[in-house]
Amino acid sequence: MTSTPQQHQPHEPSPGPGRSPGGVRGHNPEPGPEHSPDRDPGTGHTHGHSHGHSHSHGPAAPVSAHLRKVIAAVLIPFAAAVVAGLIVLWPGGTPDHKAHERSGLGFDQQTVAGRVVKVEEVNCADVNAQPQQPTEPGQDGANQESAAGAAGGSGKKAICEKATIEVTSGKDKGRTFEEIVQPNASRKYDAGQKLKLAYAPKAPKNLQYSISDVDRALPMALLAGLFALAVVVVGRLRGVFALVALAVSFGVLTLFILPAILDGSNPLVVAVVGGSAIMLVALYMCHGLTARTSVAVLGTLISLLLIGLLGSLFIGWASLTGNTDDQTGLVHGLYPNIEIRGLLLAGVIIGSLGVLDDVTVTQTSAVWELREADPTAGRRKLYAAAMRIGRDHIASVVNTLVLAYAGASLPLLLLFSIADSGVGAVATSEIVAEEIVRTLVGSIGLVASVPVTTALAALVVSADRAPQGGAEQGGHGGRGGRGRRRRARGR
Predict the structure, then answer these.
(1) The whole model's pTM is what?
(2) Do the beta carbons of residue 175 and residue 167 sit within 8 Å?
């Protein structure tokens, strides 16, 4: 009764420590090196020296040496081109921000640290502060004055706040000044609150300092710490690598992309080179130097090229200048050589890169795991199954992008709503059309990345597995072996 199984598998080793004959069949063994894949894909048995077990969260099975050479032949020249671009476009030095006269507007002003010493309530009339009355639509200046007079004659005193501010850094450290806060002001101050103060050296002495913003260093640092802690606790070592990749991304952005643009380089070329460097470092650092990651890199690269082409076409066709806000106008005024339209296209590419990484890695992992679950599946079956996953991903990602841009532009949309402008007029105005082009071009690239990456991954895994273990031959033998075991057990 027991002779049949012994005759069928005379070459199997005796169970070693921690390994039982019944346990070997119950798991999917982790494949060994490409040159010695002693595994029968039909039976699930591992022969020779392979003792590990493969789980869904484990590393992907390594691909053959030939396929690795094919992938390297594509990616190594690309990586070399990125490195060459970094070397050629690297700015000659730190941009000289003192080369121009400070305008004193927005971010282009000198700032020092300060704090609120005390806050007291005062009568607005006593400090010559007239509370601003809300302006009603259609109300002219005379009506506004009469409304203000009526409010002043109602007998109620308007209460303002007088904040005493101390300069805590710079050459005038210790100087104090007073700031009057209107009763309808959106921002209030508390004693001990830290502030950022704007400094105007050419103004009269009593007007040289004013409140620019609130110092948010502590809450922002605490939030960043909580984020890093959550990533490390959940992601463990891979979470640590993700944080390192994030730091590298910010480094490329602040040390290369921004200085190179200020140095006069083409913003589009700088964004492509810098974005490619971020993509290579982030993907390989977070997901390992594997063929699976390389396929995701190829899918991301193809999608980025599509986004760049579509963005360039429609930004030019729609006559978008990119100069739609005060910050962009200030940058263009201070650095006239910067191509603002190229800056807009560079922003589209960099903004799409992060979501592209997510989509391409997910699709590549899906194809790899589907093949591990069903080693007999062909490329068409793998592609169809992974595309069913990708369609769900497309729906959620595109909706996320649209809502993210809408949320960022919500005050602008409210202004158009207040103005009672038609949908067509709002959508075709430059300031909104710029966001629409940014959203739709990025979304087209994301949608295209799903079939492109899925097809690449299906081709890679389908072309790789058959030469390694003889899936067709092993599959038939494995099924026969299982049948003989069932008959032996039945007898």
Answers:
(1) 0.64
(2) yes
